[in-house]
Design goal:
The protein has 247 residues and is of the alpha+beta class. It has 7 helices and 9 strands.
């Protein structure tokens, strides 16, 4: 596939096609309140941290979102246990305050459904790393959703994240892409995303009855959703895996 990769800062006229590109995220993930508040801001307020790929017809087939933030800032220093939610909040807090960033965090790498399986995720990760390096950063961190973890929702993430193949590379395909690119698995972010909603909303998102107290396995979820059927709500707390890329 003949691709052209650019940033939204370089090609602001592509904002619409990038934002509107089809994806395969589970519906419930779109209702994390931190993501609701901040994810859409990245393309508009930090366009230099959005890379996208066009195919030979000019169609956007992949994009990569990242954010700069001050990891060494006050009361920080360590990669946060709240992972994705935390770095999104930190990035826009720093932007508002004018705090100089020292680190870039990956937020998402998305490949259009019809273009999956062609190595575009690795290509976009490389573009994200190159962009951070060109802007003077020395590392990129990533709170990853391991791509095959949803097949084992009951396996603890701490166990899954360190599982290796006989060749020494991670068992999980998405972790493997990052390690091959030079990343190192650093830690688990146990509460990287949180989605709390009514049972009616969970039923609408998943098609499941959500009528049983306790843990409910949901397609696409990395861990089971905790259902409080007697109280009318359910909560999903997603663990991610921190990977650090030295540039």
């Amino acid at each position: 596939m003949d691709l052209k990769v650019a940033s939204l800062a370089e090609r602001p006229e592509m904002l619409g096609p990038v934002v509107e590109m089809a994806h395969t995220w589970p519906e419930f993930l779109l209702h994390d309140p931190v993501g609701d508040a901040h994810y859409g801001r990245i393309a508009r307020e930090l366009p230099e941290f959005v890379q996208f790929a066009e195919d030979e017809r000019g169609e956007v087939v992949a994009h990569a979102y990242s954010v700069p933030f001050a990891l060494a800032g006050e009361d920080r220093g360590e990669l946060p246990s709240r992972g994705w939610d935390a770095v999104l909040g930190w990035a826009f807090e720093d932007l508002r305050r004018g705090t100089p960033p020292d680190t870039v965090s990956a937020i998402s790498i998305v490949v259009a459904p019809h273009a999956q399986g062609a190595g575009l995720s690795a290509r976009m990760l490389s573009a994200m790393r190159d962009n951070a390096r060109a802007r003077g950063f020395t590392e990129v961190v990533a709170p990853l959703r391991p791509s095959a973890k949803h097949l084992e929702p009951r396996t603890p993430m701490e166990e899954y994240a360190v599982r290796l193949r006989p060749d020494g590379l991670p068992h999980d395909p998405w972790l493997r892409v990052h390690v091959r690119a030079g990343g190192a698995v650093e830690a688990v972010a146990p509460s990287s995303m949180t989605v709390a909603a009514s049972l009616a909303e969970w039923r609408a998102w998943t098609g499941l009855p959500f009528d049983t107290e306790g843990l409910v396995e949901v397609p696409g979820a990395l861990v089971p959703v905790h259902c409080e059927s007697g109280r009318g709500y359910a909560v999903y707390v997603e663990p991610n895996v921190w990977v650090r890329h030295r540039l």
